[in-house]
Design brief:
This protein is globular. By secondary structure, it is mainly β. The chain has a single domain, classed as 3-Layer(aba) Sandwich (Protein Transport Mog1p, Chain A). Strand 3 and strand 4 form a beta hairpin. It has 1 helix and 13 strands.
């Protein structure tokens, strides 16, 4: 479910806020760069399973799916899932966690993904240097981004977790899942 929010200085286009995910609406782009994006500005938003277009004109569908629907573990206590499926097998999932920390979420996925055959590629501190899609600096919120690959499934997974406390949640999380490109791999 989305809510239309008017934005100052933007009379020709509406901004879309994803309730329940708020700042957790993380766009994890195919290039592997994680952007904290509390406000999404798609040219069109789908109704139900109807396709829509993202800010780059790519078709996507909002679907009612959670990580286990893609063969991934679900973090205990996670809620308010917002899932986009893009053409070419790309998936983005944003959700909130009621208790804990970004580190707790990262450690859970590190353990569970290693047990499932995923190979760790890199971990990056995301606290500094984040920008919104329009180039405006985002608030400094402590976070971590981790990348894995699963050669047997030919998939790459990115996870970003942020310690962004809200009245109903403590951590905001985003997961991206994409096919591995031919000959593309990241070093540890």
């Amino acid at each position: 479910m989305t809510k239309r929010v008017a934005s100052a200085g933007s009379s020709s286009r509406a901004r879309w806020l994803v309730p329940g995910a708020g700042v957790a609406a993380l766009l994890l782009l195919g290039s592997g760069i994680a952007l904290l994006a509390p406000l999404l500005t798609p040219p069109s938003l789908p109704a139900g399973d109807a396709p829509g277009l993202d800010t780059e004109g790519r078709e996507f569908r909002l679907v009612k799916k959670e990580p286990p629907d893609y063969g991934l573990p679900a973090f205990p206590g996670a809620f308010s899932y917002v899932t986009q499926e893009l053409a070419g097998g790309h998936v983005s999932i944003a959700f909130s966690v009621r208790r804990g920390s970004a580190d707790t979420v990262v450690q859970f996925y590190r353990k569970r993904l290693a047990e499932a055959g995923w190979q760790h590629r890199r971990t990056v501190d995301l606290t500094a240097g984040l920008q919104l899609p329009d180039g405006t600096p985002a608030p400094r919120i402590p976070g971590t981004s981790v990348r894995w690959e699963h050669p047997g499934r030919a998939l790459r997974l990115g996870l970003s977790a942020f310690d962004h406390r809200r009245p109903d949640s403590a951590v905001q999380v985003g997961i991206s899942l994409e096919p591995l490109g031919r000959g593309v791999s990241e070093e540890k």
